[in-house]
Amino acid sequence: MAYVTSAMIVARLGQDRAVQLTTDSGTSVDTAMIDAAITRVEGRINAAVRTRTSEVITEAVYPATFAMLQGLVLDMTVYHLAARRPPVPDDWKEANTEALEWLKLLAKGEVGLPDVGMGGAEFEWGSDDQNAATTREL
Predict the structure, then answer these.
(1) 70, 77, 81, 95: which could form a disulfide with 21 (CB 3.0–4.6 Å)?
(2) Greatest Cα-to-Cα distance within the chain, rounded to the nearest angstrom
(3) What is the pLDDT of residues 105-137, one digit of tens each?
(4) ∠ CA 111-75-25 to the nearest 5 degrees?
């Protein structure tokens, strides 16, 4: 399941920055490089998600979870592309670090996915249960 497209990454970066971060020679965006980065990031995210559910996360069925994962993919992919051309902006480093920390907590079962039924009530974001696992906001 793809959460983002190369066009979404280019939109986030802007055309000029996307060319700078993806092209070793030439003046156009290397969408194959973006697609490869997206694939790596989505693989990592999906591995963590599969520790909580075997469901396929689609926007239609799990909109909150899809939107959250989409944001993680955008942040992490931008970071990975920028790492090719240091220095990486501090806010991009921080977003990537926070995403990785959240994925580790998800894999351990310390946080859950936003949609009801995704990981059990004790892991739902915004749970009113005082005994619910602590969640972190990205």
Answers:
(1) 81
(2) 56
(3) 999 988 888 886 655 434 444 444 444 443 333
(4) 150
Percentage above 70 pLDDT, the chain: 83
What is the Cα–Cα distance from 11 to 44, expressed in whole angstroms?
23
Q: CA 98 to CA 56: how far, in whole Å?
A: 24
DSSP-derived 3-state class of residue 125:
coil
The set of residues, in sequence order, having a beta carbon less than 8 Å from that of 76 and lying 6+ positions away, is: 41, 44, 45, 95, 96, 99, 100
Q: Residue 128 burial by CB count (10 A; 0-12/13-18/19+): exposed, middle or buried?
A: exposed
Of 27, 33, 32, 34, give the one whose Cα is nearest residue 11: 34
- What percent of the chain stands above pLDDT 90? 70
Return the ∠ at Cα 78 (arms to 74 and 83), rounded to 5°. 150
Q: Which two tokens stand for residue 91?
A: 């806010």
